[in-house]
Inverse folding.
């Protein structure tokens, strides 16, 4: 039943479809075997815009629905992310058998429930994990991904087709890495170098939020503040994690110091940001831990100010605040 002729439109992400939603497609019933379940399915082909390469569906609609992925690029339909990234973040297991012969039966058995909409893929996701995925996702379709592949002869300096060459005469980039990946690996969410890189980046952000060994640090440093954010917004958001001593905004530098009364409050806030990102009024802020109280002379302080965007005026270290709140404007003006 993989191909009953009722399929009118493939399951595609916005990027693969291209800029024109009314793009003309050719349709070939039972045109190819699905790269996952090996059953014949209706293959669609189309050109997703000028200067792009022809695209076609690679897996059947049932396999796509089973994982909520695009039939062509195998990226998640909701977030545009590799299956491996999505499943790692959601703590989801791959349930489709890896052995091709078993895959066929597995998918065939699930076909009716999938088509009846009985399998709700995304319903299981935790709200916090969803938010983090949204944070990692691209907000716009990424049409560059549809460009012609890089010419392998050109890369070796051997292409003599010149302007007639249908491939791209450029050195390879990360897009071509995506193109080289094996579809089944990407579907199962394993061995995916692009996913690996994204997860590593997230892990690095996690490192950044690891509590510093200096237990006297009870402050977090927020950057990337949107223009419309107020001190009250920040106060409201962070007070949920622990009692605040002060919130000092430096609008000029789009940053703020969040000073907690206790270490526990700062740790709870950092943990929450690590788990779900730090979203205030719908805008993602970047959060790091505050630095240890500078001990050196003023010159060293000045040196540090180059790296930390804002620094307390010399002499203010006597306060127990990491970055004291008495004179926020002085903080802003001390920068640069
Ligand atoms: Zn399939
Ligand atoms: Zn796609
Ligand atoms: Zn070429």
């Amino acid at each position: 039943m993989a191909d009953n002729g009722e399929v009118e439109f493939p399951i595609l992400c916005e990027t693969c479809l291209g800029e024109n939603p009314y793009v003309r497609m050719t349709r070939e019933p039972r045109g190819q075997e699905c790269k996952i379940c090996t059953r014949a399915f209706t293959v669609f082909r189309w050109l997703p815009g000028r200067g792009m390469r022809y695209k076609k569906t690679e897996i059947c609609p049932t396999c796509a629905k089973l994982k909520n992925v695009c039939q062509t690029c195998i990226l998640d339909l909701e977030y545009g992310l590799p299956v491996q990234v999505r499943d790692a973040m959601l703590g989801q297991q791959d349930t489709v058998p890896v052995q091709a012969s078993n895959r066929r039966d597995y998918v065939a058995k699930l076909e009716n429930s999938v088509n009846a909409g009985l399998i709700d893929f995304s319903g299981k996701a935790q709200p916090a994990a969803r938010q983090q995925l949204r944070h990692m996702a691209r907000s716009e379709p990424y049409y560059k991904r549809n460009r012609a592949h890089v010419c392998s002869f050109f890369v070796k300096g051997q292409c003599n087709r010149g302007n007639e060459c249908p491939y791209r005469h450029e050195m390879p980039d990360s897009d071509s890495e995506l193109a080289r990946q094996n579809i089944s690996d990407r579907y199962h969410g394993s061995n995916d170098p692009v996913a690996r890189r994204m997860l590593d980046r997230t892990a690095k952000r996690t490192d950044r939020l690891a509590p510093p060994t200096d237990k006297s640090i009870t402050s977090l440093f927020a950057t990337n503040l949107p223009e419309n954010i107020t001190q009250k917004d920040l106060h409201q958001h962070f007070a949920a994690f622990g009692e605040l001593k002060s919130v000092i905004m430096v609008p000029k530098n789009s940053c703020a110091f969040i000073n907690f009364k206790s270490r526990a409050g700062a740790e709870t806030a950092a943990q929450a940001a690590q788990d779900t990102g730090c979203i205030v009024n719908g805008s993602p802020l970047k959060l790091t831990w505050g630095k240890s109280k500078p001990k050196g002379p003023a010159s060293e302080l000045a040196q540090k100010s180059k790296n930390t965007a804002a620094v307390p005026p010399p002499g203010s270290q006597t306060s127990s605040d990491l970055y004291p709140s008495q004179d926020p404007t002085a903080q802003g003006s001390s920068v640069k």
